[in-house]
Structure formats: structure tokens, C-alpha cells
Automatic annotation (TrEMBL):
Family: Belongs to the methylglyoxal synthase family.
Keywords for the protein's UniProt record, in alphabetical order: Lyase
Catalytic activity: dihydroxyacetone phosphate = methylglyoxal + phosphate
Lyase as UniProt keyword: yes
Function as written in the Swiss-Prot or TrEMBL entry: Catalyzes the formation of methylglyoxal from dihydroxyacetone phosphate.
Classification of source organism: Bacteria, Pseudomonadati, Pseudomonadota, Gammaproteobacteria, Alteromonadales
EC number: 4.2.3.3
GO MF: methylglyoxal synthase activity
GO cellular component: cytosol
Active site (UniProt): D62
MGS-like domain mapped to chain residues: 1-137
Name of this protein: Methylglyoxal synthase
InterPro entries: Methylgl_synth, Methylglyoxal_synth_AS, MGS-like_dom, MGS-like_dom_sf
Organism: Bowmanella pacifica
HAMAP family linked: Methylglyoxal_synth
Amino acid sequence: MQKTLALVAHDHKKADLIGWAKQHKAVLARHKLVATGTTGGLLSDALGLPVHKFKSGPLGGDQQIGALIAEGTLDALFFFWDPLNPAPHDPDVKALLRLCSVWNLPVACNEATADLMITSPLFEDTQHARKLPDYGK
């Protein structure tokens, strides 16, 4: 079953995300990939795979990916963010990570966690369904 995966990286982490994506290209190739602007272009070039590119993070790309989470159309987020270099759009980053918690969406914020997530037997298990919270109560 094809999933929609978002790949995002801050400037100082783009090389790390691209290196990680190259290592996991075979798995990523089985899924629909979306990314923020610059990162999406770099990933598409490096992997030779189609990547839907949203706007750059500071120009609304983080919020576009957040909308996918809220709509229930994103299956996982790989967000290599840089905690040591604050970005002008830090509130957008915090909001994106908050949405992952609100909607119980798997999120990896570094290479170690991304490795664990993408190699988990549950990652491509078609029988596994993530529990969605019911906020209608």
C-alpha cells in the first residue's frame, strides 16, 4: 500500500536528509513523496524520483504539510530540523510537530529515529492502522 511521506529539512540538515534518503531509496520509491520547496528539488535530483514540492518552509510549506496532517492524508513525516540554528519560521515548525502529536502521526526528527521508523516491520504492514484520536467527544 502506497503511503504519502513528507520529507523536510532545515538548511544545515539538508545534506543529512539527502544522504539518508539515498540509503533508503528503494523503500521511498514505493511511496508518494512530498517535501518543502528547496528540499524537494534537492531530493528529486539526488534520488531521481518524483517529489511533489510545496512552498519553501518559511513561505508556507510547513503549513501546507500541516494541512495534509490535519486532513488525514499524510502517513509519516521525516523532518530533519536543526535545533541549534533557530529559523525565522520556528512557530511554523513547532505547529507542524504539534500536529504530529495531535493526530498521532509518526515523525522522525533525526537520522537515528528515521532509520528506526522506516525499517520497522509496521512501516509497510498493510494490516497496521495508526489509531486516530476522536476529538468529537
